[in-house]
Amino acid sequence: MFTKLMPLLAGRTVLITITRESDSAIHATVVPKRIKESDNPALSTPLTVTGTPEELDRELPRVLTEYIETHQRLSTTLAQAKAEMEATAKAAQEEAKRKSDERRKAKSPSSAAPALAEAATPAKTELAPPPSTNLFGGTAAQADQSQPGGKLCL
User: Fold this and answer.
1) Higher-confidence residue: 30 or 138?
2) Which residue in 61, 45, 47, 52 sits closest to 20, CA to CA?
3) What backbone phi and psi angles, to 5 degrees, belong to 108?
4) Which residue, 13, 6, 60, is CA-closest to 32?
5) pLDDT tens column, 13-61
6) Three state DSSP letters for the chain
7) Is residue 152 classed as helix, strand or coil in its secondary structure?
């Protein structure tokens, strides 16, 4: 029986409780303790069997072997699932960062600066000042010609 427990004992402490259930029955409980508080509670699920001493002598080693194999598979599956979740989370974070960087580059003022600088530079054109008008609707040049002194008289 104890040789069957060795694989389970390799990574954790195992508590075994044996009590007399009746004149002909024994109750045995095998409880693997958690290695650390963050361990999945499923890894410390107890195995409980009840039977006559003869039945336990004959069947307990087989039951322990199955229990330990199941325990090890569960431990491996949990470790693989945790590793896959961490890898997926890391990939999602990297993808989000990549998209964020792409958006930041697209909105970056440095990439739009040359186009904005060209658009913001006014075209240099020389505009002639508009002709000034007098009170009567004519231009100042016309008024100068109609008055002898070149001034508008009222």
Assistant:
1) 30
2) 52
3) -60, 130
4) 13
5) 888 899 999 999 999 998 888 777 777 777 788 889 999 999 998 988 8
6) CHHHHHHHHCCCCEEEEEEECCCCCEEEEEEECCCCCCCCHHHHCCEEEEECHHHHHHHHHHHHHHHHHHHHHHHHHHHHHHHHHHHHHHHHHHHHHHHHHHHHHHHCHHHHHHHHHHHHCCCCCCCCCCCCECCCCCEHHHHHHHCCCCCCCC
7) coil
